User: Fold this.
Amino acid sequence: MRGLALIVLVATLLTPAAAIAVQPDEILKDAALEARARNLSRELRCMVCQNQSIDDSDAPLARDLRLLVRQRLESGDSDRQVLDFLVARYGEFVLLRPPLEWHTLLLWGLPPATLLIGIGAVLLLARRRTQPALASLSADEQRRLSALVGPDAPER
Amino acid sequence: MIPELGHYALVLALALGMIQSVAPVIGARYRDAAMMRLASSTALMQFVFVALSFMALTVCYVTSDFSVVNVFENSHSTMPLVYKFTSVWGNHEGSMLLWVLILALFGALVAAFGGNLPATLKAHVLAVQSWIACAFYLFVLLTSNPFARLPQAPFEGRDLNPILQDFGLAVHPPLLYLGYVGFSIAFSFAIAALIEGRIDAAWARWVRPWTLAAWMCLTLGIAMGSYWAYYELGWGGFWFWDPVENASLMPWLAGTALLHSAVVMEKRNALKIWTLLLAILAFSLSLIGTFLVRSGVLTSVHTFASDPTRGVFILMILVLFIGGGLMLFAWRAPLLKQGGLFAPISREGALVFNNLFLTTACLTVFVGTLYPLALEAVTDEKISVGAPFFNLTFAPLFIPLLFAMPFGPLLAWKRGDLLGAAQRLMAAFAVGIVTVAATFIAKGGVGILPAFGIGLAFFVMVGALVDLAERTGAFRMPFAIVRGRAAGLPRSAWGTAIAHFGMAVTLLGIVCVTSWASERIVALKPSQHVSLAGYDLTFDGLVQRAGPNFRETVAKFTVRRGGVTVGEMEPSKRTFATRTMTTTEAALLTRGFSQLYLSLGDANQDGSIAVRLYHKPQVLLTWLGAVVMTFGGLLSLSDRRLRIGAPKPAAKTALQAAE
Assistant:
């Protein structure tokens, strides 16, 4: 249902839909600074939208945030400082990649944990299931085998 | 009259579904052949009635019968005819009707083509299929009736959302639903096997074609949706890790894992329990996807709570089928006999590796999508999980998977020779390494990661070709023998190689476009230029045009490269009067696999207009890869072995055993 529902949601939230998120007048003169601003914009959520970064969104709030990010960068903030500033102001909700903390432990931890447990389980099962196949014949079975194969067969 | 007939046909389908839910189970219990055969008849008639119901709604749309609420809210008399057809499913009620139509279609297909199934298995499968169908008929009839009438018919409808007035709506939802709902067959087969307490390699052979067909539709459906969003939404992205997208990606990942584990089960009679679990999970994830999209829970946990009728209903269906399925699994699965031993380094081992990484990837998407909802519900704390999270967690899972992909088909069953496989992949390694170096140098020595991505894609592509070369003896044997072997090679072997090749093509597209796309955002006045990636665009001016149900402002651009005109681009903004909505129609210029992408922004006071121009290198490969994958699936599906109902001559069996 991706496109359909996505498009419906976007359409209902952003009427009237205009295409361009980043406006020409927002772009900084300094190319390096602008590149940093764009990278930061992709990490930040437009809080009135459905799962859109401020880089993608054309909502007025997203524009305000983009301008704010550029303002902070121009005044000499590091990327980290800009993010911290926005989190202090809007809460963690603004980050599209939540930091690793107690309440996000499961979010970050579950996938690698599953992979490790999965690998462990597969190895364990493989070991347990190949062992009976490798076990040699018991003395009794060896005797019966010899009897079947015939007296010529060399006894081990 | 017609809407009432449609409504009544759906009620009749429900009645038939209820009979089909019970009779075959009793028949199977008491070995009553007549009771069991009843299921086939009811399944076919269910489809006929749901199809009638669907046709009734379509007639309402095509004739613009605005006395029907659904038509009034989503149609308009001036809308082009094709959109009157597609708007049938461009809304909640209609799309649920499409969902049950496809569900009934699959039930009817099993009834019609399942002639070679054991009678009790077929009876159970159709009964389970009918349980699902009944739940969704009730959902449509009780909470989402598409045939509800207005007491007084308005003169004109409210029009379909303009963004949906696109060819994408004609293709994307039906394909996606064929995929989603197609997994219901695998689910029904799994539940039937658990009820019977018996499962064998033949079961896998019956399930695989259905799973494969569903997987192909889902692959195309996701790719189509992605391309649609790319050109329609106007900011040039093709995958946003939106929960709605994730809802379709999760069944795809589980379904891909299921396809691979079913191979092991069919060939080696191993991984039975795991395959059953995957069959249950793949459809469960489809149901969860439907719940996420249809309940409104995504907007916020709180909006869900404020109008919960539909959401709670789907949630109940969800709990019933997923919970019930998993409980049955926990109870009955230990009774199934395991079989087929294998060493860790073997074809089976490689497929287990595949399953491990695919299911972990699926879980990552699952956790990332649902964690914010769960956290908000439990602690009222709001966090966002978006693209940066998924990109970071998904790539480390897919890179080993892709790297291992060429090895799998080269390993023997039971006990494989990893070193031997690596040796046979020397050509692929060589091409991969040369590609990394060449890419790195060509791009001026910046960005080693994209270079590795390109190298990996080429490694997988050549690896797929090596697999075919090994099987046909190409480069080693005389041409006549190679041709004979190629003709004799099972279609499923071709399918595997082509599908793997397609995956690499997609990877190539994704790496190119995410690493080297460039963009310019500028405000232009008529006759001004903008240059990007060697192309020069001249803005020739604005033109006003009228469409059937909209007015558009078209910006005309001439595209030149090295002074030579290579094309024209006409991005536009359309204004739809009925909904007073504006949409942006991006203009695309395709050059090879790359595209120039141009979309319009707002007009300024000084007569200039904002434009956003992208160069998307090799972007078409992203979706072309999905088409190649689907083609691989199609070849595999046409394999004699999997063809439904095809008898298997004894001579052929002997030949295959000798291979």
Q: What stands out?
A: Confidence is low (pLDDT under 50) at residues 644-659 of chain B. Chain B touches chain A through 80 residues (CB under 8 Å).
